């Protein structure tokens, strides 16, 4: 039996789980911020000055050309500062506020979940707003203002780097531990706006499923995860998340 919630048809099994689940895990990616105007990594609009962002999100690229990598991140910071959270971010925050057993694990570094009012966010890939010293003086600060001359430098004279996780780097230990625990205990997992190709984040839905969770994917495009979920909703996150949250019995106003 299907229930129509807005323009999003939801199965009876999913609606039942949304109402009953005490532990829900939301795993989000760049697609959740697409409707806020932020480019995804692998989409057709993902290029920056003719370059693939993936070629810039590496320690090797930074070591070779810190100025270009910093210009890319300074641009990302400007875009994120100008963007507003969209109904997907706000619906997730509303669910977290109403249902204490809800966990939010994000791969996003833009801070839009926090700005939408999410009380707790596990950030797997760091934050655009953190700056870390590459020199070993220990400087690690949250800085929102303009960075001035690039590449940004620490007071100690060494280069600063963005506080994000690049390919080949370890994820923050506390974040990966919290995400793993949430996946192992979740009854329902909603995976939204991620291409599910970057590990270890991409392994979390499978882990949750092995521990008995019902897994739902929200993505207008098929991904490597699509064939391995209990339900795939091919809707944009800004439509699907409000529908899912309302079906869970949480009151949510769009504006
Ligand atoms: C919409 C939408 C709308 C659009 N609504 N949806 C196991 C197997 C193979 C490889 C590995 C492995 N374990 C580790 C690795 C190596 C590597 C990896 O995963 N490589 C694969 C790519 C092959 N992983 C790592 O290196 C990680 N480190 C690590 O594991 O350390 C230990 C180790 C090291 C080396 C070897 C083994 C172990 C670190 C990964 C760090 C990722 N960092 C980045 C950059 C962060 C900084 C920045 O923002 O610049 O994180 S890369 C980039 O990808 C970014 C993202 O968070 C991440 C995921 O992207 P996401 O969010 O999925 O975005 P897109 O663009 O890919 O997809 C958007 C989706 O939205 C699309 O599907 C659209 O259809 C959809 N969409 N509009 C809903 N409106
Ligand atoms: Zn320093």
Walk me through what this model shows.
With 255 residues, the chain is of the alpha/beta class. Helix content is 31%, strand content 19%. It has eight helices and eleven strands. The strands form three sheets. Strands 5-4-3-9-10-11 form a six-stranded parallel sheet, sandwiched between helices. A three-stranded antiparallel sheet has the order 7-6-8, covered by helices on one side. Strand 4, helix 5 and strand 5 form a beta-alpha-beta unit. Helix 4 (87-98) packs parallel to helix 8 and helix 6 (173-185) runs parallel beside helix 7 (204-210). The chain is elongated. The model has no long low-confidence stretch (mean pLDDT 95). The protein binds ligand BJW and zinc ion. Ligand BJW binds at residues 29-31, 34-35, 40-43, 57, 107, 109, 125, 164-171, 192-195, 197-200, 218-221, 223, 236-237.
């Amino acid at each position: 039996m299907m229930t129509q919630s807005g323009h999003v048809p939801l199965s009876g099994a999913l609606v039942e789980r949304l109402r009953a689940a005490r532990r829900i895990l939301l795993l989000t990616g760049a697609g959740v911020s697409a409707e806020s105007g932020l480019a995804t990594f692998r989409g057709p609009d993902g290029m920056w000055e003719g370059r693939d962002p993936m070629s810039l999100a590496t320690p090797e690229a930074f070591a070779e050309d810190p100025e270009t990598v910093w210009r890319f991140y300074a641009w990302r910071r400007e875009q994120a500062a100008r963007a507003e959270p969209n109904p997907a971010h706000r619906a997730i925050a509303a669910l977290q506020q109403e249902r204490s057993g809800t966990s939010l694990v994000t791969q996003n570094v833009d801070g839009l979940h926090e700005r939408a009012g999410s009380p707790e966010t596990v950030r797997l890939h760091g934050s655009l707003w953190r700056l870390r010293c590459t020199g070993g003086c220990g400087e690690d600060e949250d800085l929102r203002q303009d960075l001035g001359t690039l590449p940004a430098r620490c007071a100690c004279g060494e280069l600063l780097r963005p506080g994000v996780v690049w390919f080949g780097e370890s994820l923050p230990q506390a974040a990966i531990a919290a995400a793993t625990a949430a996946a192992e205990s979740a009854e329902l997992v909603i995976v939204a706006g991620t291409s599910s190709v970057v590990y270890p984040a991409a392994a979390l839905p499978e882990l949750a499923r092995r521990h008995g969770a019902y897994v739902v994917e929200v993505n207008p495009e098929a991904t490597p995860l699509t064939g391995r979920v209990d339900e795939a909703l091919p809707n944009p996150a800004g439509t699907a998340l409000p529908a899912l949250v309302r079906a869970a019995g949480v009151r949510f106003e769009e504006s």
